[in-house]
Design a protein that fits this description.
Chain B: This is DUF4178 domain-containing protein. The complex is a heterodimer. In chain A, 46% of the residues lie in helices and 4% in strands. Chain A is mostly helical. The radius of gyration of chain A is 20 Å and the shape is rod-shaped. Chain B has three domains: 212 residues, no CATH class; 55 residues; 128 residues, Jelly Rolls (Sandwich). Helices cover 15% and strands 47% of the residues of chain B. Chain B contains four helices and 23 strands. Chain B is elongated. Classes of the chains: A mainly alpha, B alpha+beta. At the A-B interface, helix 1 and strand 1 of A face helix 3, strand 18, strand 19, strand 20 and strand 22 of B.
Chain lengths: 48, 446
């Protein structure tokens, strides 16, 4: 196996690994929403 | 000319010593019995060794050239041990010089080791004639060669060692070459015969291991038969890339997500005030999931609907937010009717942990008040008579389609780079041909 093939295989493994990791956390760099950074008060009903 | 078959039948590995009649130096014959002419390694004089008395053909009194591979050197190439017995320096009438070493093995006959412009080739004289398959292409043993160099003249400039024919400095032959990546087909013709030689590209590393020669950087522009350093990798790389992408595709199908569920349909106030609805509970069971929110406003026209989503964890009150807007405009101008925007909008919230959530949707309808008078904004899409509504749908998932596309781009990027380099290399290689289209001179930088 040439060096190029080895590094490309490693690259593909890395990409696949990041993809699986992203799926594990259901994360995407293109998602519009996210966790609110600060929040005062309550949204919606406050269930007890 | 190639005494291969005879050699196989009766190997003669014996050597023979003789004395140069010109300078008195000791000359060792390494292919005794097959050698016809030998050039003395001390004075360069050409001797005919078919005569028992060793006849002096041409007398020279010159110092022997220092060869990159000295005569008598042995090396193993492609599983066969070869001994260097002769050396020719040739050129096209003094220009574009190259070196040819004659190799000998008593069981395998003769081969040529050709060194031209930094690249090595192993040449074997053919015992069959190539077949024409097109006006500029020849085929030998299933390999197709394309005409590369037009007719030229090769001249012997310097000789050292022994040869199986009557070699002489100044001897010329007509040449022509056909090439394919990895091998070149050379035709040499003189008054007596036409010979064909297949020259196989030898990587510099292989030559270093076989004969200990110094490793040169790859020639540029490429030699006619120099294989692209990206070609083999591309073939393997495409296979690896396809396997990786197939895995990602299967994974995405397996963990793609759930269906859209209608969360509710809500009226939009005609006065344009901000409204709020709370939907829930929405139960998220996976450790992490993405929550996709889609809204559709069927009656939307020349206006927009702002949507603020807040996904609130009932237990921790942690909020996950997203903003969306459905907007739709239409009208007519000098080009005719036009529309812009979409009555649907979709957003997603990533990495939402498991739990029970409420979805708070704050929404507000807007009219396009600056619409030019010629636009048909109607009575207003938010009018009560129009009964404007917004339908909100929710879906949970794990794999983003955008991630899949991003992964595909990342996998393909090195392959596309390799393809670009490969095509540049091939363009430069073919640009060296006498038959290259005008304008391709192969002077690109590597």
């Amino acid at each position: 196996m040439s060096g190029r093939t080895f590094f490309f295989s490693l690259w593909c493994l890395g990409v696949a690994g990041l993809f699986v990791l992203g799926a594990g956390f259901a994360w995407s760099p293109f998602a519009e929403g996210g966790r609110a950074r600060s929040h005062a008060g309550y949204y919606g009903p406050h269930h007890k | 000319m190639q005494p291969d078959a005879a050699i196989r039948a009766e190997p003669a590995p014996a050597t023979r010593a003789l004395t140069c009649p010109s300078c008195g130096g000791g000359v060792e014959l390494r292919a005794a019995g097959y050698t016809v002419h030998v050039a003395c390694q001390y004075c360069g004089s050409i001797l005919d060794v078919t005569d028992p008395q060793v006849k002096l053909v041409t007398a020279y009194h010159q110092a022997a050239a220092a060869l990159e591979i000295p005569l008598g050197t042995r090396g193993v190439l492609r599983g066969v041990e070869w001994e260097v017995i002769g050396y020719l320096q040739r050129s096209e009438n003094g220009a574009y010089g190259w070196d040819e070493y004659l190799l000998f093995n008593p069981y395998h006959g003769y081969r040529w080791l050709v060194y031209a412009r930094g690249g090595w080739s192993l040449g074997e004289q053919l015992t069959v004639m190539p077949d024409w398959v097109a006006h500029d292409q020849l085929a030998v043993a299933g390999e197709i060669f394309t005409h590369f160099y037009a007719d030229g003249v090769a001249r012997v400039d310097y000789v050292l060692g022994e040869f199986f024919w009557r070699v002489a400095v100044g001897e010329t032959v007509q040449t022509a070459d056909w090439a394919r990546p990895g091998a070149m087909l050379s035709r040499e013709e003189n008054a007596q015969e036409i010979s064909w030689t297949r020259n196989e590209w030898l990587p510099s590393k292989e030559m270093q291991q076989a004969f200990g020669v110094q490793r040169d950087p790859l020639p540029w522009p490429p030699l006619p038969h120099q294989p692209s350093p990206w070609g083999d990798w591309l073939k393997t790389g495409v296979k690896i890339g396809l396997v990786a992408f197939a895995f990602l595709l299967l994974f995405a199908f397996q963990f793609g997500g759930t269906r859209w569920d209608a969360a509710g349909t809500f009226p939009i106030a005609a006065d344009g005030r901000e409204q709020s609805v709370t939907l829930g509970p929405i139960t998220l069971r996976s450790r992490y999931q993405s929550v996709h929110l889609r809204a559709e406003v069927p009656r939307l026209e020349n206006g927009w609907l702002d949507l603020d989503y807040s996904l609130v964890d009932r237990k921790t009150q942690q909020v996950y937010e997203a903003y969306g807007a459905a907007e739709r405009y239409s009208g007519t101008d000098s080009d005719g009717a036009w529309t812009e925007g979409d009555r649907r909008t979709a957003v997603s919230i990533p990495s939402v942990p498991a739990g029970s959530y409420d979805l708070v949707v704050d929404y507000k309808g807007n009219r396009w008040s600056n619409a030019p008078s010629y636009l048909d904004s109607g009575a207003g899409w938010m009018d009560a008579a129009n009964a404007p509504q917004v339908t909100v749908e929710v879906r949970q998932g794990a794999v983003y389609a955008s991630n899949l596309w991003l992964a595909l781009i990342l996998i393909a990027a090195p392959l596309l780079f390799g393809l670009f380099r490969h095509l540049s290399f091939e363009s430069a290689r073919k640009g060296e041909s006498d038959f290259a289209p005008s304008g391709s001179d192969g002077d690109d930088d590597e």
